[in-house]
Inverse folding.
């Protein structure tokens, strides 16, 4: 429920791959804009909740204040704040609007991130509770199938957006941290917000240069996936998310299964907490950005 656009995109991809549907540049830009805004809103919630777990209440309200701007834009566009039904097979349900809201978000966020730096990143208590705590080397991360920010904070470069056809033509910088600790995982998410803002600006330029919405939608009422196994994956806020479908060519697929980043991060805790102090457990677990509904699926 914190990465709704990503899971919508996964399901759409499978159908579009099966029907060999190609997306126009504007459709790709719209989806990228919403995906990256969704990534930012997810990271903002994590920042607020993480600091709340450590006993700091003010950052929680600050992060939710900025996140609210994004949720209001999502609500204007889709009618929902968290559970979106905007992506559809072959395109989107309607042309994007309210781009002024997006530009306002991009104008405000840099100043707010600087406030976070002064309030959080330079706070000696926060640093003491996160620096050199919960060390995760990339070999252990790979052994536990960890992806996303948690893996890149261990010094390993893996971001599927670089090979993703949706992001083709977009300039994407990869955030890598070598410190491997809870503090590095925090700093990486702050830097990822900045990188997402850069990608959104690129998407805005593409959208504005294509006034007409060109798309060939696939009717979900008559949809039948051809027989076979299908898989798609995407760089979601908590690591690589995947969707697997097995179809026997009938109206309803035989099997649909999700791969979520939080599931693997939970398994990692039994390894990561060994030898740590009990009072550091909350900080270490919080730094992994685990969402339990995403674990249970």
């Amino acid at each position: 429920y914190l990465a709704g656009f990503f899971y919508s995109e996964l399901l759409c991809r499978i159908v579009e791959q099966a029907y060999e549907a190609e997306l126009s540049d504007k459709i790709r830009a719209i989806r990228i804009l919403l995906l990256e805004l969704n990534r930012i809103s997810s990271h903002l919630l994590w920042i607020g909740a993480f600091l709340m777990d450590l006993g700091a209440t003010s950052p929680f309200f600050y992060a939710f204040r900025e996140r609210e701007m994004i949720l209001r834009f999502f609500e204007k566009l889709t009618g929902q704040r968290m559970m979106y039904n905007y992506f559809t097979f072959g395109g989107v349900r309607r042309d994007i609007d309210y781009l002024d809201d997006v530009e306002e978000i991009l104008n405000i966020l840099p100043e707010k991130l600087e406030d976070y730096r002064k309030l959080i990143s330079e706070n000696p208590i926060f640093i003491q509770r996160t620096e050199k705590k919960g060390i995760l080397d990339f070999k252990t991360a790979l052994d536990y199938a960890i992806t996303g920010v948690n893996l890149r904070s261990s010094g390993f470069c893996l971001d599927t957006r670089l090979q993703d056809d949706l992001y083709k033509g977009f300039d994407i910088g990869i955030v890598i941290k070598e410190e491997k600790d809870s503090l590095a995982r925090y700093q990486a998410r702050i830097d990822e917000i900045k990188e997402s803002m850069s990608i959104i600006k690129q998407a805005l330029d593409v959208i504005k240069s294509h006034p007409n919405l060109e798309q060939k939608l696939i009717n979900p009422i008559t949809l039948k996936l051809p027989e076979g196994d299908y898989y798609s994956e995407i760089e979601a806020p908590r690591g690589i998310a995947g969707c697997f479908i097995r179809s026997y060519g009938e109206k309803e697929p035989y099997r649909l299964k999700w791969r979520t980043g939080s599931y693997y991060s939970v398994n990692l805790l039994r390894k990561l907490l060994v030898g740590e102090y009990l009072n550091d457990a909350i900080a270490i677990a919080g730094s992994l950005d685990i969402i339990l509904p995403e674990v249970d699926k």
In short: The two ends are 10 Å apart (CA to CA).
